[in-house]
Structures are given as structure tokens and as C-alpha cells.
Design goal:
Helix 1 runs parallel beside helix 3, helix 2 crosses helix 4 and helix 5 crosses helix 6. 43% of the residues lie in helices and 22% in strands. The protein folds into two domains: 63 residues, Chemotaxis Receptor Methyltransferase Cher, domain 1, CATH 1.10.155; 178 residues, Vaccinia Virus protein VP39 (Rossmann fold, 3-Layer(aba) Sandwich). Strand 1, helix 6 and strand 2 form a beta-alpha-beta unit. The protein is built from ten helices and ten strands. One of its GO terms (molecular function) is protein-glutamate O-methyltransferase activity. This is protein-glutamate O-methyltransferase. It catalyses: L-glutamyl-[protein] + S-adenosyl-L-methionine = [protein]-L-glutamate 5-O-methyl ester + S-adenosyl-L-homocysteine. Keywords: Methyltransferase, S-adenosyl-L-methionine, Transferase.
Length: 255
């Protein structure tokens, strides 16, 4: 790892608190290269000088690293599995607790809430976390384009969203079940304990093996016995303490 690249990581870590060394080097280089192309810089030294003189660029780089492209019930079938298989198995617990880890603009967190409303009569809370404060602010507002709801049928849209011109706002009774908070998986303890299910989809693919091990250990500690972990379709885990429930849907259970 060259000195300038290491200096950039160190500077952004000091400014933001995000431990960039826990992300894969190849991934970080691609995201920095993206910012350099956008700004027209030819080498890391030029970009580093610009970065130190422009605090806003620290946030722009963090945004580039924390890719936040998603939509409601992304890949759909894992959410159908959660709604039709997992939630009914949880029975009638007084309170269910779920965590959307890396929630981006809130689509996943609200999708979890919609599944819970559809499949259980239990009270529930969805904890939704991300490192990007701008994302969290927009998630709390809960307004989305029609394209972001493309995986939802019309009945679900009418039940859980208000139409605002050509956009859709999550209804208040849904928003009340979701708690948004800034959280860094790479350095902080789990957001809470005694969770029934954790969604962490398409996040760990950017981590080093060391960081992935840390995060999976945290998830294991945060889940109740028999609690579920749902990861991204392109991800896989080999962690002690989890058994695979569905390889197709990438659903695991704490044992």
C-alpha cells in the first residue's frame, strides 16, 4: 500500500471516524478512483491535497464508499421467505426486534416493517442503521420515487404509502416502528441485543475477512437463540454458530 493512499485513508478516518482500513483495499481504490475521475485529478497526490483543503470532499468520498443504491424488497424472494416462513415461526411473541444493518435510504428497513405488518400480530421494532447521516435523514422522511417501489404490488402500495404527486411517502404508522441511527459496523458494538432477525445485505462484500469475522461475531452475540441472519444473494459466510436455513435466499440461523 503506497504512502499517499495510506495517508488518504488515515486522514478520512480521523475526520469521519470510519475505519477505512477494514474495507478491502481494491474496493477503496476503485471508489477513490471514481472521485478522482469526477473531479478531474490525475494522481493520488493531487486528490489528497484537494481532500485536505475541502472538508465536503470527505463526505463525498464516504458517500462513494457507502454505496446506497437499493429499492423496496430488493431481490424480493428473501423478503417473501422472511414473511412466509420465518415470521410465522416466531409465533406470538410480545415484541419482535429486527435490525437493518446498512439501511441506506431506509427501503430495506421499511420493507421489514411491511413484512411484519403482513405476517404477524406481534408488536415489533425495526432498528435501522447506516454510517451515512444524509441517508438516515432522508430515510426518516420516507419519500420515494415510483421506481423504488417497483417490487411492490398495488395493494401494498395503497396500504403502506401515501401518494404525493409522482412520489410515495411511507405512512406514519409504519414510520413509528422504525428507529434510524448512525452506526459503524466496522468499529461499534451491535446496536442492541436480543434481536429476532438481522438483515445485512450486500454490505460485508466490501469488508476484509478480518472485519467480516468481527461483524459476524457481533451479529451472533446480538441475536436471540434461533434468531435469523439474512445476507445478500451474492454473499456467503462460514461462521461458527450459524446454520444455513436457505442457501438460495442466504438465510442463516443462530445455533
Amino acid at each position: 500500500m503506497d504512502l499517499i493512499f495510506r495517508a488518504i485513508l488515515s486522514y478520512v478516518t480521523r475526520k469521519s471516524g470510519l475505519r477505512l482500513e477494514m474495507y478491502r483495499e481494491s474496493y477503496l481504490r476503485r471508489r477513490i478512483d471514481l472521485r478522482m475521475r469526477i473531479l478531474g485529478f490525475q494522481n493520488l497526490s493531487e486528490y489528497y491535497s484537494y481532500l485536505k483543503g475541502n472538508e465536503r470532499e470527505v463526505n463525498e468520498l464516504i458517500d462513494a464508499i457507502a454505496i446506497n443504491v437499493t429499492d423496496f424488497m430488493r431481490d424480493k424472494t428473501p423478503f417473501e421467505f422472511f414473511m412466509n416462513r420465518i415470521l410465522p415461526e416466531m409465533g406470538k411473541k410480545r415484541l419482535l426486534r429486527f435490525w437493518s444493518a446498512g439501511c441506506a435510504y431506509g427501503e430495506e428497513a421499511y420493507s421489514i416493517a411491511i413484512c411484519a405488518f403482513e405476517a404477524t400480530e406481534s408488536d415489533f421494532t425495526v432498528y435501522a442503521t447506516d454510517i451515512d447521516e444524509d441517508c438516515l435523514q432522508k430515510a426518516a422522511v420516507g419519500i420515494y420515487s415510483e421506481s423504488q417501489l417497483k417490487n411492490l404490488d398495488e395493494k401494498i402500495k395503497q396500504k403502506y404509502f401515501e401518494k404525493l404527486g409522482n412520489r410515495f411517502k411511507v405512512k406514519d404508522f409504519v414510520k413509528k416502528r422504525v428507529r434510524f441511527k448512525k452506526h459503524d459496523l466496522t468499529s461499534q458494538e451491535p446496536i442492541t441485543k436480543f434481536l429476532d432477525a438481522i438483515f445485512c445485505r450486500n454490505v460485508m462484500i466490501y469488508f476484509t475477512e478480518e472485519q467480516k469475522t468481527k461483524v459476524l461475531r457481533d451479529f451472533h452475540n446480538a441475536l436471540v437463540e434461533g434468531g435469523y441472519l439474512i445476507i445478500g444473494k451474492s454473499e456467503s459466510i462460514r461462521a461458527q454458530g450459524f446454520e444455513c436455513v436457505s442457501l438460495t435466499e442466504k438465510v442463516y440461523r443462530k445455533v
